Amino acid sequence: MKISQKQINDLAYKIVGCAIEVHKHLGPGLLESVYEKCLIQELKEQGLLVKSQIKVPIYYKNTFLNNDLKLDLLVNDLIIIELKAVETMIPVFKAQLLSYLKLTGKPKGLLINFHTENITKQLIPLVTEEFAKLPIE
Predict the structure, then answer these.
(1) How far apart are CA 55 and CA 16, in angstroms?
(2) How many domains does one find in the chain?
(3) Among 12, 35, 39, 113, which is least packed, fewest CB within 10 Å?
(4) Which pLDDT band holds residue 69 (cuts at 50, 70, 90)?
């Protein structure tokens, strides 16, 4: 079965709902690692496949470079979630997620900051060319 943009967006919506649920229970002010553990549990309770702290491969001029670059979460092998618990979101966070998307070939990413009063106001969804190539429905 070929995946569609709608299916990916529906999954992203479900992920954001899980992040809101975690934030509702914990509020702002904790460490990123705490939010990560709670979000993993919430996502799994929703029946989603979650991998955490995934090494991101880097190929430079056809050579694999061993590195310690890790993305926070990968959901259903489709959506990368980069978590933050910071007072101020800076442009490098978005660049980091874009790099992860490019290096992995995944179609969509979500940058979620838990150090806020409202998760959705600072949420940054990103899509790639791979997403654009998928059928809409």
Answers:
(1) 23
(2) 1
(3) 12
(4) confident
Amino acid at 85: A
Helices in the chain by DSSP H: which ranges?
Answer: 5-26, 32-45, 91-104, 119-122, 129-133
Q: Is 106 helix (H, G, I), strand (E, B) or coil?
A: coil
Say whether pLDDT at 118 is over 90.
yes
Are the C-beta atoms of residues 133 and 108 closer than 8 Å to each other? no
**Helix, strand, coil shares, percent, the chain, to 5:** 45, 25, 30
| Token representation of residue 58 | 């880097």
CA–CA distances in Å: residue 94 to residues 4, 25, 82, 122, 129 = 24, 26, 9, 12, 16
Average the pLDDT over 5-29 and give the result. 97
Domain of residue 104: give its range: 5-133
